[in-house]
Amino acid sequence: MTIKQFLRKKMITPIIFVILFTLSFIIDDVSTLWSGYLAILKSPSQLITDYLYVGGLGATLFNVSTILLLNIVMLNRLKVKMSGPVFAGLLTIAGFSFFGKNLFNTLPIYLGIYLYARKQHLEFRSFIIVVLFSTGISPLVSFLIFGNGWPLYIGIPLGIVAGILTGFILPALSAHTTRFHKGYNLYNIGFAMGILSMFYSAILTAFGIDYFIDGLISNDYHEILLILTLILSAIFIISAFIFDPRVLRSYPNLMKSTGRLVSDFIRDYGRAPTMLNVGIMGIISTLALMVLSIEINGPVMGGILTVMGFGAFGKHPKNSIPVMMGALLGAALTPVYSIDQVSMAIAVLFVTALAPVAGRYGFFIGVLAGFLHIIITPLAFRFQGGFDLYNNGFAAGFVAALLIPFLEAIFKDEPKEETT
């Protein structure tokens, strides 16, 4: 297989697995890594649980690489071709495996989606996008098993059943939530999971169960993660030029896209411009953090990888920078919130869920959307109780639902997406 054939089929994801898996054993010895990994598996895992604090860097990278491997193998067995949504799903999984996802709390949800597919007499692979993004609600499983002090003979079956039930409900629910925000929230499944999480938190509250945690983070590995992020971004940019030395000629076409769901950049613009965009989005995210003096911890690393992943599925500099600027403006102008807060720091990255708003309605509307998002995000967290790792997707759904009806009334014409 030539380099170009490899890039065409895999989009570098196996290379990311190899890098992270190898690093995990270089950083820690086997006994330290294993004890840290067991601590991750036993963690309640709600927002914001930084696995770097819980298990250390080596164990966290091992957790990321094993979950990434599971999903790569699953995609290969199901013969799913690489697409923008699939690629975004893989990097989002990798990102959130730094804070909240692990093998133990992931598999019950996958099983629930599989059972739903069987009930509907459909192929499991037809729900693959839902599968890849479904584990944003995986902390529910971990909390019910490890977070409430129940005996394991009660917690384990309860957590597994809750995970299966959630997976069974999620495909139908996510199909309907797109109508709520009309495709202007790239984290649509995060919005659907926020609704489910809101009901779960209401049930726990009704029974007097305390489910909020004091999230502890670790900035001890900032420099290593900064270098890793820059290396990964550089790999994508270099690969784009290997695949097509004239990629800069076609890249401007990609940036004409609004990014509104479903914008598959691999399908519409090709692999080379998409890989270039993924790398550039990684560089932009990293530079933004450096300018703001934000150190990289587990949640921030998750944000960077998610932004990079969605560089194949709706995000590019032109539609992302305005909403990021709006989020920064909101954090600067509001006395209650500060960019020093972890939730605000990662919201500056995850606010790019609303990138299609800027892509469709322009720079200033994008800034407004980002401003509103930073205000709503903490309230959304309180509603969903920390069980939905994609809390910014939950918040973005409400922002889009608020803005879009008014904007559609003002801007009557709907532009067509440019495709190549």
Q: Could you characterize what this model shows?
A:
There is one protein chain. The chain folds into two domains: 3-206, no CATH class; 222-407, no CATH class. Helices cover 71% and strands 0% of the residues. The protein contains 21 helices and no strands. The chain has helices spanning 3-10, 13-27, 30-41, 51-55, 57-77, 84-96, 103-119, 128-134, 139-147, 152-181, 188-206, 222-243, 247-254, 265-269, 271-291, 298-309, 317-333, 342-350, 355-361, 363-384, 391-410. The longest helix has 30 residues, at 152-181. The radius of gyration is 20 Å and the shape is globular. The protein starts with a helix and ends in a 10-residue tail after the last helix. Residues 415-420 have low confidence and may be disordered.
Strand residue percentage: under 5%
Radius of gyration: 20 Å
Instruction: Compute the average pLDDT.
Output: 89
How many domains, in number, for the residues?
A: 2
State the end-to-end CA separation. Answer: 26 Å
Residues in helices, as a percent range: over 70%
Count of beta strands: 0
- Taken from the alpha-carbon principal axes, the silhouette is globular
Q: How is the biggest beta sheet arranged?
A: none
Layout: helices, strands, pairs:
Layout: H1 3-10, H2 13-27, H3 30-41, H4 51-55, H5 57-77, H6 84-96, H7 103-119, H8 128-134, H9 139-147, H10 152-181, H11 188-206, H12 222-243, H13 247-254, H14 265-269, H15 271-291, H16 298-309, H17 317-333, H18 342-350, H19 355-361, H20 363-384, H21 391-410
